[in-house]
Design brief:
Elements: H1 9-13, H2 23-34, H3 41-49, H4 54-62, H5 69-80, H6 83-106, E1 111-115, H7 122-129, E2 135-141, H8 144-156, E3 163-167, H9 173-177, E4 185-188, H10 198-212, E5 216-222, H11 228-234, H12 250-260, E6 263-269, E7 275-281
Parallel strand pairs: 1-2, 1-4, 2-3, 4-5
Antiparallel strand pairs: 5-7, 6-7
């Protein structure tokens, strides 16, 4: 596949030069989304909670157009049909299947799963409903609202006996130390693309190994995205700043994990070539 040249992460962090030919396009695009675009439920959620939040990712995965009036639903369908949204939905299925396969490997042995940046984590619920076994899950996230909504979903699915919830920072060492018992599987999906510091992420793998020492880890890496500049110039993150995502070669992230002691990477790409889903063992 031919991959066109995209602006680097460092370029996207900076405002574009005044003479940049796409400036007017992005300004009008941003104005449109913040006015007429707000009839779309997806746009409303994204600009309220951030387009890097678990809230918007779970909305995208539901894939049900919603909005105010007919125009809102039309705009929402256009949003949900964007290639980045299609990739989100594809990796949700991939991640669910990886978890299901892992639980089948466990063959009924007691299994403790921790998702360190879970959002609503509905793909975990799908995996739990489609497998049998002695499984307990801890969902952690900085967003308390997402955890409350996730708990409500689990209650409807009669899964509260398997799942617990805790507000916490995946990158905070003291927060990680509070997790007990040691998990069999640690999940970190949707997290690495919003970590801008390579050294912080590289060190994080060592902290996972030293503190939690899980039997396996599951993560994803955004390797390519033809919409990366549009997202950075027009959309906002959970802190109200420009939504700049960090693309990385999956081989580089696997190398960092291997240096921390994780082995046997199993990589599955989404059909759009945007995300790599990776399972590694300890």
């Amino acid at each position: 596949m031919h991959l066109s040249r995209m602006p680097s992460f460092e370029e996207l962090l900076k405002p574009p030069p005044a003479y940049y030919p796409k400036n007017i396009y992005y300004k009008f695009y941003s104005l449109f989304l913040r006015t007429i675009g707000m009839f779309s439920e997806g746009m409303r959620i994204g600009f309220t909670h951030g387009f890097d939040s678990g809230m918007i990712m779970n909305y995208v995965c539901q894939n049900t157009p919603s909005g105010r009036f007919y125009i809102g639903k039309v705009l929402d369908r256009i949003f949900l049909n964007q290639v980045t949204c299609k990739a989100f939905r594809a990796i949700k299925e991939i991640q669910k299947n990886v978890i299901k396969n892992y639980l089948q490997e466990r063959n009924g042995d007691p299994t403790f799963i921790v998702d360190l940046a879970s959002g609503k984590a509905d793909y975990i619920y799908d995996a739990l409903r489609e497998t049998n076994g002695n499984v307990k899950v801890l969902l952690r996230d900085l967003d308390e609202t997402a955890l409350k909504e996730s708990r409500a979903i689990a209650e409807k699915l009669n899964l509260l006996n398997k799942v617990s919830y805790e507000q916490g920072n995946a990158l905070d060492i003291e927060s990680l130390k509070r997790i007990y018992p040691k998990p069999n599987l640690v999940i970190e999906v949707g997290l690495y693309g919003i970590i801008h510091d390579d050294e912080l992420l590289r060190r994080h793998f060592f902290e996972l190994k030293d503190i939690l020492n899980p039997g396996a880890i599951l993560f994803n890496v955004q390797t390519y995205n033809p919409q990366i500049e549009l997202i950075a110039r027009v959309l906002k993150n959970r802190d109200g700043e420009r939504c700049v995502w960090h693309l990385r070669p999956v081989e580089l992230v696997i190398e960092w994990a291997e240096k921390a002691g994780f082995i046997e990477p199993q990589v599955t790409m989404d059909p759009y070539g945007i995300y790599a889903v990776v399972m590694m063992r300890n």
